[in-house]
């Protein structure tokens, strides 16, 4: 009689006891437990149920992602960086951050590491942003590379502001090529430049000294009809100043004022300094007036630039008037301002006016600094009247019943 093999059914018998339902042998080699070697350790062996991730999705990291090499080779700096990761950071983000901190180009690649993390944890935009925020805080060298990779992932949902931030970051580091590459990547995804992005580009080209591209970008902003604010105008004004085109810079400032938009103090100060260094007293005075129209109170450095412009152009009287106006505004002159006025007097050999100024400063308890003192010593030595001037000042001070004027006695003797 032929032997018939019994048929196997996956449906348990209703009378089968519970122990019969799991009759697969646990001694099968397929279920053998693998022992980890001593040179491997688990980055995170915790299960995070919602909690710090902001949702109720159960997070569990796969062993392939959690194994990190090199416990023996972990530096003290890496250990410290890992220990200082934000406590509220999700486990999936911590797993990636630990790999990034311990990353070495000799043992792997960034794209492969990120691809494995994406496959294992299915990150959301919030996870990407948390990682990038921490990398930015650490000023990590992989920040830009990881950001650019994240932009290619659908889970990141990159928008124009994300690209603008990276472009601005590259611009701050003078990496013009990388910034332009990021701009092209943004445009290839169908994202159009807005006012913030274009302003960042104008600033970038201005800083790089590329006036042509700065002008073209600014003109594009006009054609698109985007809002031009003080940052936009300030960027193009600085581009003109760096290129030495002060007329166009001043023209842009007047256009701003007509729209009741005023540039930051640094922009006005940069234009004033440019005019001052050229000895253009008229241009310096115009910018100085514009500063006050913009509601900016001139400080000692701004006044010093105006005084320098008058001194450089040979207008000693105007320089002294600017100096006195500064003092009347309760601004104590610094050593540079005092030295400028004394230098103007020396050029015209007006010793009496210089002595009058010294007495006024002494009366107001204004101490002479190194630059002013050195200038006076050299001037009086050339005249051969160092001791005579000191005696005259002492006699004058005693007549006024004031403390002995010791400005000149404190002057350093040059070698």
Automatic annotation (TrEMBL):
Residues 174-280 form the PROP1-like PPR domain. PROSITE patterns: PPR. Pfam families: PPR, PPR_long. InterPro entries: PPR_rpt, PROP1-like_PPR_dom, TPR-like_helical_dom_sf. PPR repeats lie at residues 159-193, 194-228, 229-263, 299-333. It comes from the Eukaryota. Keywords: Repeat. PANTHER family: OS07G0661900 PROTEIN. This is Pentatricopeptide repeat-containing protein.
